[in-house]
Amino acid sequence: MDQYIIKGGNPLVGEVEIGGAKNAALAILATAIMTDETVTIENLPDVRDINVMLDAIEGIGGVVDRVDSHTVKINGSMISNLTVAYEYIKKIRASYYLLGALLGKYKKAEVALPGGCDIGSRPIDLHLKGFRALGANVDIHHGLISASAETLKGTHIYLDKVSVGATINIMMTAAMAEGKTTIENAAKEPHVVDVANCLNSMGANIRGAGTDVIRISGVEKLHKTDYFIIPDQIEAGTFMFAAAATRGDITVKNVIPKHLEATTAKLLEVGCEIEELDDAVRVVASKPLHHTQVTTLPYPGFPTDMQPQMSVILAISEGTSTITESIFENRFKYVDELSRMGANIKVESNIAIITGIEKYTGARVSAPDLRAGAALVIAGLAAEGITIVDDIYYIERGYENFHLKLASLGAQIEKVATEKEIQKFTLKVS
Ligand code: EPZ
Fold first, then answer.
1. Angle at CA 94, nearest 5°, toward 52 and 81?
2. Average pLDDT over residues 245-252
3. CA 262/CA 241 separation, integer angstroms
4. Sign of the C-alpha dihedral, residues 100, 105, 107, 111?
5. Domain boundaries in the chain?
6. Residue 13 burial (C-beta neighbours within 10 Å; 0-12, 13-18, 19+)
7. Coil, strand or helix at 126
8. 3-state secondary structure string, 262-305?
9. In the 8-state DSSP scheme, what is residue 200?
């Protein structure tokens, strides 16, 4: 299995282009099958999760034309199979967006029930509550969710919890229901807004995305569009934190600074300097970092997808910090790996108490999930000596050319697959 090998200690300096938002793209790919006309989607990140979603769309009969690694044309007119196979849900939970899309368009859909994952049980009860509220019969048998409706009727839906997935899935179905739907306590993430904007460019009538009340007037048909995905706020935040951890100076380009406000605020709190431009943010970390307190919250709060990266910089900041994970129940698994690099972190329920140390020491660690994997790479970049990160396929699910972008900023990092390559790298950097 591929690994990253890293010789830490270099401050990362330079500019890095940020790609399209994975979590917007996964849902927008699903909306593309809701019309029988051809939809062109640009600025797709070329990452494993996106490729699995495109396979799932082909698996139900959608026509997928990969124009280039960041552009795809999708035509949903030939869809013949309304059952999304378990193999796709097993690979990416977000293939459940096809349930909302197919139900909205065909009033019928079947998708395997997603299991738990590395960061928590992740139920989808709110998604199903929304579909039922719109008039669908939803049954679960043999691990398969079957949803069908004579007609879908707009209604008022209150989400007991703020849920990105439920907000997006229900919004897609309601876009083609009869009448008006209101979603209260909706998620406000930028990718929710991006999906609503894409649907509206296809002829939907969605207002209020980005606030906690989304109002939808259903339409009978949707039409073609050519849509450009927003930049990935988590990829941007990950590189911004890499600047902080390595005392570097990084400018992330092709970003929307407003989407990064919570991330930027925390970097200022720990002592970094920030410069905001129209579509770029520069992070300079010349001084020692110091402690702070963080709680992960739905947008515009501090994103849970930046929580592991936050731990990595706080563990080498002066003083004692705390991180409270309020979204997922099991998102501190990486702490054991980080402790092997010298971190001093104690996890009590959903709070991590972090006592800053001088410096990490390189070690062999394993990525437990996508964002924690990226965080361990950042720790390796800041560490003294050599770090090897195993299970990097997790990281490649959501970061395009991660090691190449880091190397372009001055990191000594390579992707290796054999002991021989590890020895070669070790000799080269020693
Ligand atoms: C999306 O997951 C993202 N994934 C996650 O990013 C992200 O961490 C999460 O939103 C929060 O921002 C994609 O967009 C593909 P939720 P999602 O529904 O939609 C509970 C990454 O690293 N809940 O907002 O599954 C749930 O258990 C990934 O890119 C229910 O109880 O998250 C959680 O505690 C990791 N019932 C909370 O709500 C439901 O029906 C928020 O989950 C749905 C969710």
1. 65
2. 98
3. 12
4. negative
5. 3-18+231-429, 22-228
6. middle
7. helix
8. HHHHHHHHCCCEEEECCCEEEEECCCCCECCEEEECCCCCECHH
9. H
CATH number of the structural domain 3-18+231-429: 3.65.10.10
| pLDDT confidence of residue 371 | 97
* Count of other CB atoms within 10 angstroms of residue 427: 8
Q: What pLDDT does 116 receive?
A: 64
C-beta atoms surrounding 3 within 10 Å: 21
**Is the fold of 3-18+231-429 the same as that of 22-228?**
yes
Taking 90 as the threshold, does the pLDDT of residue 290 lie above it?
Answer: yes
pLDDT at 22: 98
Q: Measured in angstroms, how far is the CA atom of residue 398 from the centroid of ligand 1?
A: 15
- Residue 187 phi/psi, 5-degree rounding, is -70, 150
Residue-wise pLDDT for 139-164, tens only, equals 999 889 999 999 999 999 999 999 99
Q: What percent of the chain has pLDDT over 90?
A: 93
Instruction: Tabulate helix, strand, coil % of the chain (nearest 5).
Output: 35, 30, 35
Q: What's the gap in Å between 335 CA and the centre of ligand 1?
A: 21
Query: 90: which DSSP letter?
Result: H
Q: Can you tell me which atom of ligand 1 is nearest the CA of 128?
A: 40
pTM: predicted TM-score of the whole model, two decimal places = 0.97
Per DSSP, the residues of 389-422 read EE-THHHHTT-TTHHHHHHHTT-EEEEE-SHHHH
pLDDT reading at 119 higher than 80: no
Alpha-carbon span 245 to 359, nearest angstrom:
10
pLDDT of residue 113 exceeding 90, the answer is no
- Categorize the per-residue pLDDT at 341 as very low, low, confident or very high, splitting at 50, 70 and 90: very high
Total number of residues shown for the chain: 430
The rounded distance, in Å, linking the Cα atoms of 219 and 129 is 21
Full strand arrangement of the beta sheet holding 108-112: 83-84, 108-112, 144-148, 137-141
Question: Which ligand 1 atom sits nearest the alpha carbon of residue 191?
Answer: 14
What is the dotted CATH code of the domain comprising 22-228?
3.65.10.10
- The H or E element that residue 237 is part of is helix 233-245
User: What is the CB neighbour count within 10 angstroms for residue 377?
Assistant: 28
Ligand 1 is surrounded, with C-beta below 6 A, by 23, 26, 94, 120, 122-127, 161, 163-166, 187, 304-305, 327-328, 370-371, 398
